[in-house]
Amino acid sequence: MSVKKNYLLVINPISGDLDKSAMVAQIVHYAQELQVELTTYETTGIDDITAIQQLYATFYFTRVLIAGGDGTIKMVGEALEAEDVVFGIIPAGSANGLSIDLHLPTALEENIVIAFQNNYIEIDMVEINGKKSLHLSDIGLNALLVKNYENSDTRGKLGYALQVITTLTEAEDAFEVTIEANDETITSEAKMVVIANSQKYGTGVTINPKGKINDGKFEIIILKTLDVFVVGKIVTGNILSNSEEVLILSTEKATISVQKEINFQIDGEYCGEVNRLDVSILPAQMKVAIP
Fold first, then answer.
1. Nearest-CA neighbor of 133 among 227, 211, 36, 58?
2. How far apart are CA 179 and CA 113, in angstroms?
3. What sign results for the dihedral spanned by CA atoms 208, 268, 123, 257?
4. Is 239 helix (H, G, I), strand (E, B) or coil?
């Protein structure tokens, strides 16, 4: 007699400004077809990590499905980082960069099937000032964009688009950054510094062409300028490392220092202003279902 599988579905009801009732109904129906016992939990933004940990301690789920964006995935991964559990990703955020790097399809039905199946990889996390990052974090221009987006009333890709002009208007001059990594110290002017565990932002734009989410390293991308020419290269996937405009370092540990407080974001979540980041890789932290 087979033991019935026991899964948890975590839903972020406001991510991506989408009504998820139809999505949840499809997931529940598929779970019933597979005879999977499915417990659902909706995030509230208040003590979700503790609530998820308490659910796990009660039911000991073998798999956790996550319907949300990069921030929701990171939060659930942090909550259960000490547990041996496979995570199934169902992209449902304003930005779904992690799902792009995992080569997940765009169709909901296909993602539901993948989230329930047994093929998975173990992906790294990056620890930054004691906080965890799964995907892409940065200081400078994009972090300011994230701040403006969080303070706006419009969600989704339209919300990001509406904040671009505001952000470019507010953008400050380049700042000086010092990076200690791989037994060397580099000082450079920068408009933006990215800490990348993977390749692409949620828009599909490649910022770290050589990055791998499971190679035990992260990259630091210094964008020395962000004029139309450089932005054009990034958008078209032609960003080059170690050029006059861009410098990319690959490492397992680094310290990033700036002379003034700079806007900082982790995986699409604004984290205030900082002048120092202590960064290290955390290898093989999450088992994630993939095609």
1. 211
2. 43
3. positive
4. coil
Q: CA 4, CA 17: separation in Å to the nearest integer?
A: 34
Sign of the Cα pseudo-torsion (158, 159, 162, 164, in order): negative
Buried/exposed 228-261: b ≥16 CB within 10 Å, e otherwise: eebeeebeeeebeeeeebbbbbbbeebebbbeee
Q: Contact 96/102 with Cβ under 8 angstroms?
A: no
Report pLDDT digits (tens) over 16-56.
667 788 999 999 999 999 999 999 999 999 999 999 999 99
Please, are residues 243 and 210 in contact by the beta-carbon 8 Å criterion? no
**How many H-runs (helices) and E-runs (strands) does the chain carry?**
8, 14
Give residue-wise pLDDT tens across range 232-271: 555 555 565 666 788 999 999 999 999 889 989 888 788 9
- Give the DSSP H or E segment for 143: helix 141-150
| 250-to-91, 198, 256 alpha-carbon distances in Å | 28, 12, 14
Which amino acid does the sequence have at 224? Answer: K
